[in-house]
Amino acid sequence: MDILRFDVANRLFFRLYQSSNLMHKNGTKAVASFGSTTQQWAVMGALARPRVRNEGMSVKELIGFLMLSRQNLSAVLDRLESRGWIEKVKDAADGRSRRSRLTAKGVAIWDEMLVAIGEFYEASLAGLSPEEQLALYRLLDRLKDGLAALGVEEDAAQAEGA
């Protein structure tokens, strides 16, 4: 990689790092009145999606969807469960497995949080047109895929060496 490409890449990844930290810091402020964090917001948002709202998600599914470690996710799930916002239920297909889903209280809290989250989104994205927002989404999705492929290649290399 030539020096110019390296410099641009370095600046880009540093900007992503800064943006991620600011998103976490200010996102947590946006949901602080609920006693929530951005991690809890992400888990609740994953569980609130129409496709999974009734049956919930397994820990493995949540790890894959949110790209979190099991350790980080377990702590968030325990906190949400202790607050009565989620419950762990038996998997209909495999009674030995458990799935996490929002409780009625969790759905009500989520619906209230959506107002604060919407305001956070509006303020955060005010400097971008709808077209720019869509372009950024698409570019970040491609970057995410490229980063994910690095992990796949690493996993394959480790499997070959085993």
How much of the sequence lies in strands comes to: 5-15%
Order of helices and strands: HHHHEEHH
Q: Give the averaged pLDDT, no decimals.
A: 92
Number of E-state strands: 2
Give the % helix: over 70%
Radius of gyration, in angstroms, nearest whole number: 19 Å
Question: Span from first to last CA?
Answer: 31 Å
**Lateral arrangement of strands in the main beta sheet:** 1-2
How many helix segments? 6
- Principal-axis shape equals globular
- Poorly predicted parts: none
Major beta-sheet overview: 2 strands, antiparallel
Based on secondary structure, the structural category is: mainly alpha
Written account of the structure:
This protein has 162 residues and is mainly alpha-helical. 70% of the residues lie in helices and 6% in strands. It has six helices and two strands; from the N terminus they run H-H-H-H-E-E-H-H. The protein has helices at 3-31, 38-48, 59-66, 70-82, 104-124, 130-161; strands spanning 86-90, 98-102. The chain has a two-stranded antiparallel sheet. It starts with a helix and ends with a helix. The mean pLDDT is 92.
Task: Note the topology.
Layout: H1 3-31, H2 38-48, H3 59-66, H4 70-82, E1 86-90, E2 98-102, H5 104-124, H6 130-161
Distinctive features:
mainly alpha, 162 residues, globular, two-stranded antiparallel sheet
